[in-house]
Amino acid sequence: QLTVQYGDFSEWMRERTERGNDSDLNFWLAHLAGELPVLDLPGTRPEFQLHRGASLEFAIDAPTMTRLSEFARQQGTTLYMVMMALYKVLLWRYSSQRDVIVGTPISGRNYAEINNLIGFFVNILALRDRLDPAASFTQLLQQVKQTCLDAYAHQDVPFEQLVERLNPP
User: Fold this and answer.
1) Taken in order 5, 7, 154, 79, is the CA torsion positive or negative?
2) Torsions phi, psi for 116 (to 5 deg)
3) Number of CB atoms found within 10 A of residue 90's CB
4) What pLDDT score does 81 carry?
5) Is the Cβ–Cβ distance between 108 and 122 less than 8 Å?
């Protein structure tokens, strides 16, 4: 017997969204305040979006993964945080933009009452970091770690609500 149903969760989220004075929402509005960067990668963009994406698969060999995992442990971070920091450096190098936002999915199951429910709980977190060219990689990693931890602590705001409030380009 479940103590809550998906409808209960949906109602709770709706009520929370309608209240509007939510500390989680205030966090995101502050985190994403100001002009939001649009990632400008090299290459030309078609006039109209064609939805012809592509993917590139690659494998990281076991010794490299072991070294990355050990580095993450030494820095007090997760492997995910190390890879996010590396990805942000890559985006910065390709775009020359130091203000980088990466959207990442999160499970949305951060309450024990909903762990056994069937339903769609996934949310998107907008991880924004301003990269300093003078900073070391370990400094950037610590910044990314804090960005991730802050985002996890405020993950209950639906991404759609943020988009609606911020109305980005």
Assistant:
1) positive
2) -95, 0
3) 11
4) 98
5) yes
d(CA 123, CA 151): 11
Q: Enter the DSSP assignment of 112.
A: G
Summarize pLDDT for 71-124 with one digit per residue, the tens. 999 999 999 999 999 999 999 999 999 999 999 999 877 777 777 777 777 899
Q: In angstroms, rounded to a whole number, what is the distance separating the alpha carbons of residues 54 and 31?
A: 30
The span from the first CA to the last CA of the chain, in angstroms, equals 46
pTM: 0.85
Rounded Cα distance between 155 and 110, Å, is: 9
Q: What is the CB neighbour count within 10 angstroms for residue 74?
A: 9
φ, ψ at 143 (rounded to 5°): -65, -45
Contact 75, 146 (CB under 8 A): no
Nearest to 77 by CA among 23, 134, 10, 144: 144
Q: At residue 21, does pLDDT exceed 60?
A: no
